[in-house]
């Protein structure tokens, strides 16, 4: 018991010392103005999940899982983007999951028909002609080109099958693209940064705070790369291990995982870090609760500030929930002990009863019950040092901003207009992010997958970001399934600098997975800002 209490105290102290909080939305200087939208007409079929942009042809490439293609959208007129053509992916993989573009080369990650089998990356030129196909790890989910275009870094998530009888190893593939453009990539250009070096060291990883908990899984099987952020010089990849609540630091040129960094837990019981924990209380109730949030970031991006590298992460959260194994439970279904058991009504639906938490608790769990509760995600974004130390977290600002701007549809879901529908399950769910530089300042654009919309922060000073605006191109008077509700499920983001823009404006291009729409925004000055 003493060891668990000591560990909890250290975790919380480290979190508190490394957290700067924004208590309320502030008027800012930058906002978004919608210019145009391309709509596929598909609802909830993954028709617009990831996007890439070619500054030469002024075309946007968008994954379309509904048709098994990459849609090529002509964005030369940003007010009226139209379909230019498609790149068929038949025979290359089951469905596209991610896109990256650099120097006239488009890379498309493709999941195998059997997702536990190795996936592939297909390369094309800007016209859609093939430049080669290579095999990578299981379930490639995200890819980024280094800034010089010499390498493509691919996160292979390698999820288990639904019965949890087959769990492939997670990995990061490094594809040398030196033959492009003008040549073809081949299998000999692919190297793998794996996690086998940590096999047999699972207990040590858990002691550090890395979640290794799949039934019978080794470290290499349990670690699941989600998203890639690259240092500005392209030498280091920072890969989120979402389910594991950790970050992998990868040497790109050597194709080697250097470190695995645990990301800790967020104390939702301190000021300005509360959550709305119930979808059954018929109210907006952002409060402090005796819960620790596992950060579990999805999107990640790196940038330089004051001579140092920092990481921005979107703390979405994710649970393992399979037929063969599930860690999900609601608080009302658990046996509580100690301090938690002494709190009256804590397990009622109106308090914490509905909140989803993990049964794979890293500490506080005994035969008598749970002495600590761990929820999924932190409902925030964080800024980390290059070593993984948290220097900022947005606290409960996202939920408070949504409560102020969209109170009638607070914590709604992405396919239905429902008040308070996601409060028990990760809230607004920040997922994707991209960084952009304007006027010498760095801005973070962060999508809220369930609520919809984009949060904008000036992150030029990593320890003190400044909220700019929240923009949501969602129409709550419309019907999602009828295609009249605007953008739903924003995921993939591209920032386009003025020098690369079709109309000279800085742009943000957003792919919306549920609505199957791709929307182009101009990043403009906020006339109401300070």
Classify the beta-strand content into a percent band.
35-45%
CATH superfamily: YVTN repeat-like/Quinoprotein amine dehydrogenase
CATH architecture: 7 Propeller
Structure class? mainly beta
Strand tally: 35
Radius of gyration: 22 Å
Helices and strands in order:
Layout: H1 2-17, E1 30-39, E2 51-54, E3 59-64, E4 69-74, E5 82-88, E6 95-102, E7 105-111, E8 118-125, E9 130-138, E10 140-145, E11 151-156, E12 171-176, E13 190-194, H2 202-208, H3 219-222, E14 225-230, E15 236-241, E16 246-251, E17 256-262, E18 265-267, E19 292-294, E20 300-305, E21 308-315, E22 328-330, H4 338-341, H5 349-353, E23 356-358, E24 365-366, E25 369-370, E26 374-376, E27 380-385, E28 390-393, H6 397-405, E29 430-438, E30 441-448, E31 454-458, E32 466-471, E33 490-496, E34 507-512, E35 517-525
Parallel strand pairs: 19-26
Antiparallel strand pairs: 1-35, 2-3, 3-4, 4-5, 6-7, 7-8, 8-9, 10-11, 11-12, 12-13, 14-15, 15-16, 16-17, 18-19, 20-21, 21-27, 22-23, 24-25, 27-28, 29-30, 30-31, 31-32, 33-34, 34-35
Keywords:
530 residues; mainly beta; four-stranded antiparallel beta sheet; 35 strands; 8% helix
Structural overview:
There is one protein chain. By secondary structure, the chain is mainly beta. The chain has one domain: Methylamine Dehydrogenase, Chain H. 8% of the residues lie in helices and 39% in strands. The chain contains six helices and 35 strands. The strands form ten sheets. It has a four-stranded antiparallel β-sheet, with no helix packed on it. Strands 2-3-4-5 form a four-stranded antiparallel β-sheet, with no helix packed on it. Strand 31 and strand 32 form a beta hairpin. The termini are far apart.
